[in-house]
Amino acid sequence: MARRKRESAGGKPTIFDVAQRAGVSIKTVSRVVNHEDNVRENTRERVLAAIADLDYQPNAAARGLSSKRSYVIGLIYENADEFSYMKHVLDGALAACEAQGYTLLLRPLTLPNDELLAQIRTFAVQARVDGVVLPAPIGDIDGVVDLLKELDVPFATVTPRTPKPEGINVFCDDAQASQDLASYLIEQGHNRIGFILGHPDHRATEQRYKGYRQALKAHGIGYDAALVRKGLFTFESGQQAAAKLLSLDTPPTAIMASNDDMAAGVSFHAHERGLDVPGDLSVVGFDDTPVASHMWPPLTTARQPISSMVEAAVNGLVRQLRGEEANLSEAPFHCEVVIRRSTGATP
Amino acid sequence: MARRKRESAGGKPTIFDVAQRAGVSIKTVSRVVNHEDNVRENTRERVLAAIADLDYQPNAAARGLSSKRSYVIGLIYENADEFSYMKHVLDGALAACEAQGYTLLLRPLTLPNDELLAQIRTFAVQARVDGVVLPAPIGDIDGVVDLLKELDVPFATVTPRTPKPEGINVFCDDAQASQDLASYLIEQGHNRIGFILGHPDHRATEQRYKGYRQALKAHGIGYDAALVRKGLFTFESGQQAAAKLLSLDTPPTAIMASNDDMAAGVSFHAHERGLDVPGDLSVVGFDDTPVASHMWPPLTTARQPISSMVEAAVNGLVRQLRGEEANLSEAPFHCEVVIRRSTGATP
DNA sequence: TTGTAGGCGTTATCAT
DNA sequence: ATGATAACGCCTACAA
């Protein structure tokens, strides 16, 4: 006995209802819904009309069960207190997923974390994601990319390019922006510029440092290792580094921090010390997080197009999942320098 | 001809594999997996052992297709620039969903928004979510709750309790915390305390204002309408309100803002004006966002247990979906007051 | 270009 | 307490 074709039973319309209404088979409806070829334009329109009439929505569960794909993309991220970077990541990922018909599944992780790889393995396997996006610093961590390759889970990283890029990678010109910021300070007359490195596990840390060195070199300023301090991208590490730098016999007249949080720490420490910013000390950050524009004085910094980068990553991933060319531009995304009062601008 | 039982074919183990291994029928496995009754303890253990051996994970798509439930909970939120509140919401929602075996689906919305109800309707229907969580201010908006009731989509709100509570509602003692903050200022010797209201569409706005009024009353300080200004929870609105308040003939010696962003705006404006905080002006915020501890001087504020509240909301929702009693405590969650330097503390 | 048959892995129904 | 079997709605073959 033939399968019942689910006469309009009051529930949500199914592919059978659409097929019946359009006078075609369910396969044809399926073709239209999935943008497959081999459907006459005329037929396609009839089907689309039926879909619109019935307000038909494909059932994701049925589709997933049959196709063995989940239409879910996983987003693995570091769940740090400072979340403004992740907010932009989320915005970009959600926008791209929505546009592509995918669902985003979040997987926050705490760093540092000895069980990181095990957790990622569990997530990638149990959640049955079709692919995974790895924003910095997750994609920077040793073994993560290798693990996903081993598990055969497609992935896209958003982080400065590695020497031997694997899979889909989206990145921006951190180093250039950093060089621009340093050059700006030099042009303001500074020649003793402190630099606070970021967390060593973030690849951006090297890039931003590189830009600083390049600016010094381009302007013929000698490098002084005493002016470079380690940091961890946290407010507190910025405070501590500033304390060291400002205690030097010849303290710097400007400090570049590798991100805004540390720059806020620098500014905070300068205030505690009774110094005026920018009168006694210019301060520069990186990322243009909300604190940069809300602190006093507001912070000169650089803005990455994070949302766009993540969107590009998701789009590339989805194209790959569809068997198309990932087709990513090889050029880095561009960072924008934002000049504010912490370096003397008086808007 | 009987359906093939999917001999271990190399793919992921299915319920048939587990049944075979445990020597029971698939229905029994299903019972164990879903914590149903009518399974002998002995049998249950055999099944659990088989599940562990095979590392079996139920297929969500198949389960969803069959049960007509999606095991997805939607989170509808305002996608504002200031995201620290939402970060805690996310943390709580993800934790609860993970614990309950649900998936979280995000739906950011932009406010204000004329198409809000239409967007929510589309989301609730198309996404086939089993239930929806509405953190403030979404649950505060007229018609949202009514719409979900009309659509018959279970929901939980996280926002100050309404006079006639509907569905699941989780809230905290904003008003009490606000009163505590104001009392603290009064005890510090302030008797002209400016107050900046929050966005009128947030129910918390009333609560925080109420606490301010109560503190004045409790200390026998007369109410002066000139000391109360409207705000929108934004940094800029805080700046503007501060400008008005500090231009009064007899300006306040302390300003309470209904959130940290506005308080940051107040502090910022005070600096622009050459005033010392807290020397010339004490400043108080609400929410204990990251900026509160990173700005100079750090901000006295109050901290809501947002993650816990959202966790409770999701847990209540899931219990309702399971047909159990929502079983929510009727007591509000407690806010903690955090004293910092912006009101004269010198830690 | 279009259609038919057969599963995908689970839950639900109704026996036993 | 346990099991056989029919949906669930769609996609992937393979036909026509």
Structure description:
Two copies of one chain form a homodimer. In chain A, the strands form three sheets. The first copy, chain A, has a five-stranded parallel β-sheet, with helices on both faces. The first copy, chain A, is elongated, with a radius of gyration of 26 Å. Chain A folds into three domains: 15-58, lambda repressor-like DNA-binding domains (434 Repressor (Amino-terminal Domain)), CATH 1.10.260; 70-172 and 306-331, Rossmann fold, CATH 3.40.50; 174-304, Rossmann fold. Chain A has helices spanning 15-22, 26-33, 41-54, 60-67, 84-100, 116-126, 144-151, 174-187, 203-218, 235-246, 260-272, 290-294, 306-321, and strands spanning 72-78, 103-109, 131-135, 155-158, 168-170, 193-196, 228-229, 254-257, 282-284, 301-303, 336-338. By secondary structure, chain A is of the alpha/beta class. In chain A, 43% of the residues lie in helices and 13% in strands. Chain A contains 13 helices and eleven strands. In chain A, helix 5 (84-100) runs parallel beside helix 13 (306-321). The longest helix of chain A has 17 residues, at 84-100. Chain A binds chain B through residues 57, 59-65, 70, 79, 81-84, 86-87, 90-91, 94, 103-106, 108, 125-126, 128, 235, 261, 264-265, 267-268, 271, 290-291, 293-297, and chain B through 57, 59-65, 70, 79, 81-84, 86-87, 90-91, 94, 103-106, 108, 125-126, 128, 235, 261, 264-265, 267-268, 271, 290-291, 293-297. Chain B binds a DNA duplex (16 and 16 nucleotides) through residues 2-4, 6, 14-16, 24-28, 30-31, 33-34, 37-40, 43, 58-68.
